[in-house]
Design brief:
Length: 320
């Protein structure tokens, strides 16, 4: 049996990107029960990709109760619906086999990793204060994507002079803005820039000098995206809600590395249940951005452990 329910987690603070603000994370929790075992997974429907809680619920409820992971890859397109069910099926298989998911997937035992902590878009003054509050963290990610980002960059660097910084423009810049900012990104020690241009317009990145590595986010969903990234990007951000689950995400990671891309593993704003499978995926990634639970005021009953800027692998009681 496959069941799905909507859950809401309050955010610790208002979270803002260039597309808007939110005060809560709305997720879908999926459970798959067979043979006395129950596996579960979580997804975050994303309006940017034409998804809603209702549309994704309908996709999941339309699946046959006995669907396998292999069949699921053909039944649904990459996206949130397939992600939640795929991860629930992995969890179910692990419980039925008495093993951990990493063993079933042929992966090495996971360990803790440094994760980015995201500072949402705000005034330079407030972003500097947020950076100073989190200056002890080794890696900060800042949300940008407006015509006035230079002051924000300077403010964050002043607030956290020793932290590594990555920038996410969320498709908010033009090629001209990126070119103007690039020397300042180098000067301020920015390690990478995520999706500076809209995915539909990213051909403008071809031929542009990239002194700071550029990472594809909205432009990269699954393996079918890779041919369209050539000459534009240096890295891909793999998110389970884009790939449609751990199955495709692992395949994308291998294909991206074979094609010469570095790997970042990111997330939507969700609970520890959404992050848990991504922790396995993120082993060995150049950058990890699995801070969703750190942005919440509440979480699952068995949450992921975070300490000293690191995220730790999930306990079996959470997932996998």
């Amino acid at each position: 049996m496959i069941s799905v329910q909507a859950d809401v987690f309050r955010l610790a603070e208002v979270f803002t990107i260039s597309r808007g603000s939110r005060t809560e994370a709305k997720v879908l929790t999926v459970t798959v029960s067979r043979g006395g075992y129950t596996g579960w997974g979580e997804c975050v429907p994303y309006a940017r990709y034409g998804e809603s809680l209702e549309s994704v619920t309908a996709q999941i409820e339309g699946l046959p109760a006995g669907i396998t992971r292999a069949e699921l890859q053909e039944a649904l397109e990459p996206g949130a619906a397939r992600n939640a069910v795929d991860c629930a099926l992995w969890d179910l298989e692990a419980k039925a086999a008495g093993k951990r998911v990493w063993e079933l997937a042929g992966l090495t035992a996971p360990g803790p990793m440094v994760t980015a902590y995201t500072l949402s878009l705000d005034t330079p003054e407030k972003m500097q204060a947020a950076a100073a509050k989190n200056a002890h963290r080794p890696l900060l990610k800042i949300k940008l994507g407006t015509p006035d980002d230079m002051a924000r960059l300077e403010a964050v660097r002043a607030g956290a002079p020793k932290a590594r910084i990555i920038v996410d423009a969320n498709e908010g810049w033009s090629a001209e803005v990126y070119a103007d900012l690039a020397p300042h990104l180098v000067r301020l020690g920015v390690a990478l820039v995520e999706q500076p241009l809209p995915a539909a317009d990213d051909a403008a990145l071809i031929g542009i000098d990239r002194p700071v590595p550029v990472c594809a986010d909205e432009s990269c969903h699954d393996r079918a995206s890779l041919p369209h990234l050539v000459g534009k990007y240096d890295m891909v951000n793999i998110k389970l809600d884009k790939t449609g689950g751990l199955t495709e995400a692992l395949a994308l990671r291998n294909a991206a590395r074979a094609a010469g891309y570095q790997v970042m593993v990111g997330c939507m704003v969700g609970s520890s249940l959404a992050m848990a499978p991504a922790v396995l995926l993120a082993q060995g990634a150049e950058y990890v951005d699995l801070d969703g639970p750190l942005l919440l005021a509440e979480d699952r009953s068995t949450p992921l452990a975070y300490a000293d800027g690191m995220v730790y692998p999930p306990e079996a009681g959470l997932w996998g």
